[in-house]
Every structure is written in structure tokens, then in C-alpha cells.
Please model this.
Amino acid sequence: MVPEPERVVDLASMQREFERTLLGGERKFTRIQVAERAGISIERAERMWHALGFATVPDDEIAFTDDDVEALRLVVALEDDGFIEASVESSLARKLGQTQSRLASWQSAMFLDFLAGSKLSADEAIEVAGLLLPAMERLQTYAWRRHLAAAAGRAMAGSDELARGIRAVGFADIVSFTRLTRRLSETELGELIERFEGTAADVVALNGGRVIKSIGDEVLFVADTAAEGAAIALALQDAVNADESLPELRIGLAYGTILIRLGDVYGEVVNLAARLTTECKPGRVLGDRELAAALDGHPDYSTHRLRRVAVRGYRHLVPYAIQRAD
Model:
């Protein structure tokens, strides 16, 4: 049997090797040194570090690599070139950090599951990580470039309404999710969420929309037109109804001007869509007055005005049932 001290040393050595592989080099600098080499103040470097989602590092801790210095220099260069405004620097870092943190959490869990099911030695596991890293980087860069090209194409070919930020916004919410969390095991709950998010992402993409974010039991999406928003909502209800493993959904839609900032959406239209979701019956789609007006006369959809309701922030909200035309 391997003595305990030796086993601890082996684990520590393995951790250092993994870290060196993932970080692309040795930790060489303190936070003060990395700021000096990047040519920025320690306050600005600290602000960026926190915005990216990392904890404060003590002054004397050797925690940073050459890549950390280069990343800070890139931010400075982009700001000097006028591509990034100083006022949004921290917001940009925060969004980037949140997105990459979620991706990294999923990927690390996937890799650990792979290791648990294999019989690799520590050296073999490190070698596999070194091979996987560039492959994952290439895949992420490919997906990012494709999405960037699609977004740029939409922006250049968009209508005047799109230029003014007019979109359809939808919330799709799982019915009785809290009750489900009590009844299902962690594994079953994870499978349910994965299936729901996957189904929603496929339906939204196939109908020309974009998923803005998913939060467990809820997906927020946008579409360029009211008709596309209705198509997504109704197709999503159809997909869920056809899948016995998925619970029913409530979907609320609203149409109008939204603020699109750093990949997220804000404004009254977003709030209206959320409120309509809470008022919606399972399996149905509700829209606001503007969405119903935009669909008026459309050959594929019909709207039916329902009784006025009072919800938080809106005392006289008029919902419309959205359906396919007969």
C-alpha cells in the first residue's frame, strides 16, 4: 500500500502538471508584477480580475503567467484603438467571464466523468488533457466565428425595425418545476434540464431565433419578427407535447423595442414577456398587445384577446392567446 505522504505528493504533482497544461505555462508573477508588465495600474488590473469572476490574490502570491500579461495588454490595445470603451470594459469582462465559467464547469465535469470511467494513470490523464485542450479550443473558435458571421449578416441585412432594436422576446417556463425538483433524483433532474434546454435550443435555431440564456427551468429567446416569435413558441409547445419525458410549458411573448447589451436583453418588452409567462396556462402561448397587432392579418396565426389581468408592475395587462390559424 502506498504511504499516505507519498500519495499526497503525487496528487499535488499531478495538480501542478494539469495546471501547467491548462494555463499554458508556469505561474511567474504577483498581481503587482503582472499589472506593471501589462502597463496598467494595479487598480485597473484588479477590477478586470474581479469582473472575470476570480477572487482577490494576495500581493505576495505568485499566481499569474505570461498569458495573463498578454491578455491585459490585448485589452489595453483594443481600448486604445477605440474598439472597447473604457466605460464598458468591466461589463465586457464580466460577461466574458460568466460565459466562459459556465463552459469551463461543464467541460471539467465531462473530463472528470471520462477519467472516472477510464483506467488511465496520472501521466496518461495529463497527456489526454494536453491533446483535448487544443481540440476544444478549435471547436470553440469555430462556433464563435460562425455565430459572429451570422450575427454580422443579420445586422447588415436587417430592416429599419431591427436597426431600432425591435424584436419579439419569449420566455418558456417548465410547469411545476419546484415540485419536480422534490420528486426527481439529481441525475433525473439533470437529464430533464438537459433535454429541455436541448429541445428549446433546437426549436429556436430551426425557426430563426436566438437563445439568450437558460436558467434551469426557463429559457429566454428572441426573434427578429413577431411571426418568427410565434413560430418558435408554437413549435416548442409541439415538441414538448410530443416528448413524454418533458413536462408542460408556459410561454409568454412580447414585441417591441429592447435594449441589446453584451449579449443580454433588457427593457419593458422583456418584463412583459416574463409577466405573461406567469399568467399563461400550461401548454399555451400568450402574447402582448403589440405582438397581437403585428400578427394581425397574418395567414398562419390567429390571436384571441383575453380578460385583462393585474400583475406586478402592470395593473391593466391585456393578454392574447396565440394560435395557428385554422
User: Anything to note?
Assistant: The chain has a mean pLDDT of 85.
